[in-house]
Sequence to fold (394 residues):
Amino acid sequence: MSVKVNTNYDNLVKNYLFSEIAKRVKAYTLANPDKKIIRLGIGDVTQPLTKTVIDAMANAVQEMGVKDTFKGYPPEYGYDFLREAIVAHYSKRCNVSIKCDDVFVSDGAKSDCGNIVEIFGDNEILIPDPVYPVYLDSNIMCGRKAKFINANEANLFAPLPEGIDGGNYVIYICSPNNPTGAVYTKDQLEKWVKFAKATGSVIIFDSAYEAYITGGEPRSIYEIEGAKECAIEICSLSKSAGFTGTRCSWTVVPTELMVGDTSLNAMWARRQATKFNGVPYIIQKGAEAALSDQGRKESDEIISYYMRNAKLIADLLKEKGVFFTGGISSPYIWLKTPDGMSSWEFFDKLLNEVQLVGTPGSGFGKNGEGFFRLTAFGSYEDTLEAVERLRKFL
Ligand code: PLP
Fold:
């Protein structure tokens, strides 16, 4: 006899995407050591933290070395100075009014996307395909069943609830989207909020890429009337201020969000207080600085740098008449592979013939087959060269 393990893990689809990419790139490099590979598959930032953030963290380090200003355990939900800075950020950036009590500071959107599952019961989840894999896998680990919403060329990878049977769903929406770069308009998000309210569903809105929006689309689900009664929002400083290695994010669970008599805010507060001991003071000071006017100005310059790369790629695709989404208001460019090639065929062709690495779309779900993800996180010089290499195939 031995202990029982969580057999839901047996239901996870083996995702070899990034290990398979690494394996193929390694094999190519070993066989062709003199060839320069350009990687436009990375989903990580490459530009360093800005001066304002570094100065704030350096000050905080000094404070930790002095008895009077030393800090022990941080508050589980975040220091008030950061929760207030987040509230001010919503007000300034998208004219949304939330309260400090709605905000829970965390060490990353990935953790919160995974952990939020715990406050829900055994509902069906509604999840777009293709998708950021964490939403699906964390639900499978808890034994939840998923219903997929097809994102495809016809709906420009921004599917709507039309035609979906009513039911009490937990709905995942990511806008701007990883991997497709698609961004929902206000009208489209209104349809989702209306659907959620009509069906007693709850939306988990992942706004990790809101800082890339330039077209006036909503940065927050709370720009939609009524969303506070049906949506949780998860946001991160990873891609907006270069915190992928520093780790700081937040989740908004409005106190208005009730399921019957139960407050999801109170449940998430209890969950975090029980299982999470907060984000380090030094990091929260850096996060506060990142959200200040000067911090945002500096980060926005970095985002402009990445978006100049995105434009280089998008301009080529437009010139060649290739279907793509993203590249505007998003660091991701999601393109249709030429000549009906499969995602992996295109990957191999680019790697072997022009030493360019991207991410096969089929790794993000069945509707990703025949698509390919490039990112704007490389250097400008590499992206320029990559565009010339890519040109040969389009
Ligand atoms: N949500 C989406 C859609 C992402 O693409 C990522 C990271 O790539 C995350 C969340 C994770 O963000 P964090 O670094 O805050 O954990």
Summary: The mean pLDDT is 96. The chain has twelve helices and 15 strands. The longest helix spans residues 293-320.
